[in-house]
Design a protein that fits this description.
Radius of gyration: 29 Å
Shape: elongated
Distance between the termini: 15 Å
Strand order of the largest sheet: 4-3-2-1-12-11-10-7-6-5
Number of helices: 6
Number of domains: 2
Helix content: 25-40%
Length: 337
Amino acid sequence: MSGRATGVIMVAAGVVALVVGLIVLFVVVPARAQFPDDVDRMRFYEGDLALMLDAEALAAMDLANVFMRDVPVTIDRSIETIEVDGGKALVSDESVVNGPNGPILGSADVYAIDRKTMESIDNFTDDDRVIDRDGLVVGFPIGTEAKDYTGFNGDTLEPNTISFVGEDEREGLDTYTFTAASGPDVITDPELLALFPSELPKAVIEGLIPALDLPAETVAGLAEVLPALPDPVPLAYTYSYETNYWVEPDSGVLVDYDKLESRSVAVTVGDQTLPVAEVMRLQYAQTAASVADAADDATDARNDLFWQGTVLPYALLAGGAVVLILGFILLRRPSAP
């Protein structure tokens, strides 16, 4: 084969490598840098249900056993991609709180999200389970930044701030640490309110007071306001929480997580909602084994992004450029006589 023919082949090969490299860099990589279409992820937590109103005991007027206390719990959480449409995804997020004798609480939510920003979007499907939310709902974006994000408080149905607070290490990975906290804020989610009585007769409230372990000043305050309230007394509920997140920023994988949440019964006096006593207090953290699994997921995702997003396209571009230059050199050489 002549040098000119070899040069033509090399120029053609170089052009192909450059084009493929550009396609990988500007088409394939951005398409990969988003919430995957095949997520089926489990995370596990353990903690303590320090207090929870037992609705069955209350209905039976078993006031001595109206609260569950200091119950060790485990929590199983699953996140799964149900459907994708371009840059949009339908995602399920299910959790079960288990006590020693079986499930205590459960939730099953479905969100429509932007696969890049991970923020909630309008429902793009005919699935009527989709919950309307704002901000982040099932995780952080690939390429998480050191900045504050907007999340969502499912109890109050209001956005909340997820604050960036610094960097930390988890399972050998450098992570960004975020926190979120709020409350006490009035609960407005109907499903949560259904867990607790919406009203109680004054006589029942008076009988419950000894079981609430209230400070003396709170008992005195209740004794003062109860006569002015209607009978039965309408009840409201408030929610407070503190959450910590550890996120591997390149992959956006949530490596570790813990939360303290408290719900309290409240009465409305005039234009004020006054929390009276806790009716639920739950604290939990991700298990060590689950943190290790999450770290493995983050490492795998980060490595895939590195090889596919950096090594492959730039190797193609660099190799294509070298082959192209060599091909032009061969084409410019004088033909043999």
